[in-house]
Amino acid sequence: MSELKIARNNQQTIDSLQKTDAGIDATMSLVNTDYHPFNGADNANPFANVASADNPLSNISDVTVAITLQQTAAPCPRIENASSANQIACEYYEIRSQYAPANSGIATTLREGVRRQIIAH
Predict the structure, then answer these.
(1) DSSP E strand boundaries for 1-121
(2) Buried b (16+ CB within 10 A) or exposed e, 48-85
(3) Tens of pLDDT along 4-24?
């Protein structure tokens, strides 16, 4: 009987990790669309304005995603001798995806860093 519990817990852990990762993948799939999630500010719910037909998380419940702007107009990792080195800046974001179904006892959180190049001011 304990083998079945262990197998079930392992499967729940794998499912939880996959669903949490789907939140990050879904967020990245919005880049270069009308719903581009990286706009120079924190974004508590990048899917708030996404039409349900376009929402890549519409079939996955209990996943929440938030984006936090970590740093704006920061230097980018570039070759210093590049002709445009002083014309490009970077914004650094953290995507936080969490899967926490009610009454399951399982909650998984993944964080991923994203760098976006912008034109420096």
Answers:
(1) 63-74, 88-99, 108-119
(2) eebeeeeebbeeeeebbbbbebeeeeeebeeeeeeeee
(3) 455 567 788 888 999 999 999
Q: What's the longest Cα–Cα distance across the chain?
A: 67
Domain segments of the chain as ranges: 2-119
User: How far apart (Å, rounded) are the C-alpha atoms in residues 35 and 39?
Assistant: 10
Alpha helices, DSSP H only, in the chain?
2-29
Burial of residue 99, with CB atoms counted within 10 A of its CB: 0-12 exposed, 13-18 middle, 19 or more buried:
buried
> CA–CA separation, 76 vs 90, rounded Å?
5
Distance between CA atoms of residues 82 and 84, nearest Å? 6
Residue of 42, 46, 44, 45 lying closest to 34 (CA atoms): 46
Which of 8-12, 50-54, 99-103 tops mean pLDDT?
50-54
Q: What gap in Å lies between CA 35 and CA 93, rounded to an integer?
A: 16
How much is the pLDDT for 85?
Answer: 66
